[in-house]
Design a protein that fits this description.
alpha/beta, 7 strands, disordered N terminus
């Protein structure tokens, strides 16, 4: 809000009674009006939550009351959702583990009634149980023999095992596990050391764990760079988002380019268009899904789909904003957006293209009618929102003609949750190098999850290739593209 000239020029920050007495009645009225407007703006900011803004749901708990709601405060007409699986949810029932490592026979040798030892077999009950073995971490001492050929005199030695790295105390898979615990399990180094002591009775210092994490990050650097190059060259449909990241107290930005088969994180200095073009190139042939942040406006992509969930929050906020017809406009467009989400979800289940096309045609007519109806009646705040919706029609409603593109940016936002959780646990990075390492490690973790691959196996394979130059690096490029 623009500060009133009387407030900025004539009234000191802590005005005395004498200062106020020198102002005219009109000047005091103007100051009161400006203060009332400022109070209204601050009240509106305090009322914002995750449903009406981009604030995360974790901040909503601050506003919740510690007192239990009385029955009169709750709406008894609304059906309450019971905890657990909902109707229609396809449950999962475990039927074994797919393998048996050991069979243990349990026999009753003596009759508990009479003490007899001749028991006739009746039946055998079978139950599979996953057990934590006594020593999940074993200490292996490798004896590498060297010799001299009696025929030609050549000195030679056996190859070291691929399960270890010469000169290092921790085996390949144990180092890969440490990488998993720190970058997917979000465990600090102290707790990782305690867990390893619980599992193997071995003491590993934090310095060794830090060096191990750096070694894993160096090992996966070639596959991550290969994925980034592939994304820039192939340019598939992607979802993009970004989140702040603290590096020695300075705000940096972690970008994510998400797809159903991969996830590419990039450490960057800013949230600017230059960073976006550095990641995806200045022109993009695929469809770019994003929120409505200004950086994405005007970016040269084949098409864009802006997130309707963000648009819905804007209209929910409009409902609470004082002004002519704001509540009516907000409710009308929230209903339209909810209708769009409901029908898109039905299409995902049924895959009925004909029904979806018919609905989309009717929806476009309803949308056009609503815009024509409300734009002439809208106040400044609502008009700004409706004009944005009208002028960027193709970017907000691209999914109506292309149902293969979802109407939201959930894929990118869900991909960022892993990074946000890690940031909350570790507080950021201590150097730009460590920040870049974190981006690479998160890329591997999320991409392997998308491709249903073992993160630990990938880390182990990358470590072997990093040490033994004859081994090929594992690839993050989706198999469907190779």
């Amino acid at each position: 809000m623009r500060e009133h000239p009387f407030m900025s020029k004539q009234v000191p920050p802590q005005a005395s009674d004498d200062d106020l007495d020198q102002l005219s009645k009109q000047e005091l009225v103007e100051i009161v009006k400006a203060l009332q407007a400022e109070i209204g703006r601050l009240k509106e900011l305090l009322s914002l939550d995750s449903k009406t803004s981009s604030k995360p749901p974790s901040q909503d708990i601050i506003k919740k009351s510690e007192k239990k709601k009385s029955r009169s405060d709750t709406d008894e007409t609304e059906p309450k959702r019971k905890p657990g699986g909902q109707p229609g949810h396809e449950g999962k029932t475990r039927i074994g583990f797919g393998r048996v490592d050991r069979i243990e026979i349990l026999r009753q040798e003596v009759c508990p009634n009479c003490g007899g030892m001749d028991l006739a077999p009746v039946k055998v009950e079978v139950q599979q149980v996953a057990q934590l073995v006594a020593n999940p971490i074993e200490i292996v001492e490798y004896h590498r023999h060297q010799g001299q050929c009696r025929q030609c005199g050549t000195f030679c030695a056996a190859d070291w095992s691929e399960q270890m790295i010469p000169g290092q105390d921790l085996g390949v898979r144990l180092q890969a596990l440490i990488g998993w615990l720190g970058n997917y399990g979000h465990m600090p180094y102290v707790k990782i050391g305690e867990l390893l002591f619980e599992l193997g009775q071995i003491d590993i210092g934090s310095g060794t764990l830090v060096a191990t994490n750096q070694r894993v990050a160096q090992a996966i650097e070639p596959p991550v760079k290969q994925l980034g190059t592939w994304v820039r060259n192939e340019q598939p449909n992607v979802h993009v988002d970004e989140t702040p990241w603290s590096v020695k107290g300075v705000k940096e930005w972690l970008w994510v380019v998400a797809h159903r088969t991969f996830c590419l994180f990039t450490a960057a200095d800013t949230r600017s268009r230059a960073e976006l073009e550095q990641i995806l190139s200045s022109e993009y042939r695929g469809v770019l899904s994003s929120d409505d942040f200004s950086v994405y406006n005007g970016y040269c992509a084949a098409a864009q789909q802006k997130c309707l969930a963000h648009l819905r929050r804007h209209f929910l906020r409009l409902i609470q904003h004082p002004g002519r017809d704001n509540a009516a406009i907000g409710n009308a467009f929230v209903d339209l957006i909810d209708d769009a989400f409901d029908n898109y979800r039905q299409f995902q289940v049924s895959n009925d293209v004909t029904r979806y096309t018919d609905w989309a045609t009717q929806f476009k007519s309803k949308l056009s009618y609503s815009l024509k109806t409300w734009i002439p009646k809208a106040s400044a705040t609502a008009l700004n929102l409706l004009a944005k919706l009208r002028d960027k029609y193709d970017q907000w409603w691209y999914f109506l003609d292309h149902p293969e593109v979802p109407p939201d940016n959930n894929l990118a936002e869900r991909s960022l949750r892993l990074a946000v959780t890690k940031r909350k646990v570790c507080g950021g990075s201590r150097s730009l190098t460590r920040f870049e390492d974190t981006a690479s490690l998160l890329t591997v973790v999320q991409t392997c999850r998308r491709q249903e691959r073992s993160v630990i196996d990938f880390f182990a394979s990358a470590l072997r290739a990093h040490i033994r130059h004859g081994n090929a690096y594992p690839s993050l490029i989706p198999l469907s593209a190779t």
